[in-house]
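Appendix B. One record, verbatim.
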Amino acid sequence: MKQIIGMLLIIMTYGCQVNVPPANMQTTQLYPIIENGLWGYIDQSGKTIIVPKFRSAGQFSEGLAPVRLNGTYGYIDKHGEFVIQPKYDVAYSFEKGQAKVYLKEKPYFIDKAGKLTFEHNFSDIQGFGKNDFSIVSTKAKNHGVINRKGELLTDTIYNEISAFSEGFAVVTGHNHEPYPRGEKEPVFEIGVINPNNDFLIPFGKYKEISKFKNGFAKVELDVEYQQNYYDHEGVIDTNGNLKFIIPATKWHFDYGNEDFSEGLATVGIYLVDPNTVKSSPSRDSYKGVINTEGKIVFSNKDWDKITPFKYNRAFVQDVKGDWYLVDRKGQILNEDPYQEILYETHSGNPDYLFQKKLQFVKTDTGWGAIDTNAVFVLEPKNDGYDYRDSYWRGEIIFIEKDISIGSDKYSYQYGFWNTKIGTIVEPQFHDIEFAEFKEELIYVMQDDRIGYIDHEGNYIWRASKKGQHQTDFNIDYMNRGYFYASSPYKKELARFGGWGKSRNSFKEISEPKKFEKEKLNLIVNPSDKGKYLETFDGIKLYIANTTKDTLFFAAQDSRLYLKIQAKDIDGEWKDIEYTPSSWCGNSYHTLFLPPTYFWEFTTPVYQGEFNTLLRAQLLYKGHKKQKEDHIIYSNEFSGGVNPGQFWRKQGYYSSGIMDPYNN
């Protein structure tokens, strides 16, 4: 969580749409850098090629890079000259001659001359990527598929279309209701189509369908297909054939490793009937392998884990914790067991096994690398590192060190072992690009400073300590809610208060003249200065209760439903901040503010190309049992915004169950 917060703060601090490290190019690669809060580019030697002058900078692709000079985006060439003039809310890199841009919140695609490739009335276009088709949606939330000319391949008639996988997508109709309440009959409007809307699986055949992976997908069967009550799932192939029904009382697909790989899949075979045992024993199953007909090929009651197959090989772990390499028949190929294997067992991804046809394993001597016949290519050695928490990409092993106990800001430090040249760089970076070092330079972040290193860990370029920072808050996306508060314990209000994320407790009003009498005050005072995120210029915002009653406020992990709004170019008030949603019920609670008390906050001084008026909006309740929220607004004050602030939300990645947010 701390590491992700640190990364997000840095991205937010620079107010940029930057993707690092950049993608491959046919000519000299350029890398985005930041100095004095502005972005430019260096080459692989660290020489500045484009002097920092942009507010945001994206990666070069097909000779052009999207940048934001002031409030809007355009595209520059490798000389730093605009080829497509700035006018877009946000812009993304070119791929196959097209780039996705947004203009007044609406997505478009342009060519390298800056011309729209097609007009449309869709509310969203997901993007083509390497494909020649894209999923689109309408304002009515109907979904379809278009080609690169904007022509409909699949009409906008579906409630949902999943991402295409192996040439197919799962589609659902608006009436799909496999588990209706009451006496209603179930409706199965789910099927599988190709981009041209040709059905592989028509509606009405299955209750649920997963996406295809490695040639197969799982389906939930209608009752009439079931052999018995428990056997209600099956597996289909890309021809639409039902290959087999899963015998649910005999075995199940391995949790977290549920897909076929090279025609084989790992399963857990029950030692006891799972439906007759009220409480499972400590070990109720063992591992085996099935083929695409659902037949068990081999199994062993002493095996607890089996990885996916790669190059006709898999690793098995026995009840003692020892690892062995096996072939497609389950025959063990190594005489002496391995203590560990370098593989992210939770991922279930065979791509992370036998990379470059080598696999790192640990013996009594240390870590080494074997080939697919269990012959050591790199002899085991002890280098003093425990690679238990490591990530292997190609010839690079990334080392992760937990520093969460001694750091309030970061959870991990990262280093790497470049097995190609034998260099080991000790964990020191708080972020590093987890790639195969295909670029000359590798993006890293250390102590809040971004930089680029070579393959031996030497800095080629690093931002100066003050060079990254700026005092003006100039961004192109909606700011995530940050108004945290708490209410101290009171016996009569024991069920109300704040916890977890805020030490910002209310204070007693010592200057009554600052607030109007007998009302809930929401005041923004531009002359009362502060610091936002310890870096940016800010101004004070106050919530003060001068009524005779205690007032109540819905909150989310101590975050109030308080946000800043701005007038757009048409004079309409729109949010430029948002409160994210949590899937955890424990996130939601209520704060209280007694009479004669107030909360104090700092909101950023928003800077942007469009000068306008801003205000704050707050939700509150008059008493603790009130269901509906009241809405109040603050005084209006001046500020500047950019077009993207009215609609665009940054990506957010939850760090786990203790961070129950996905936006």
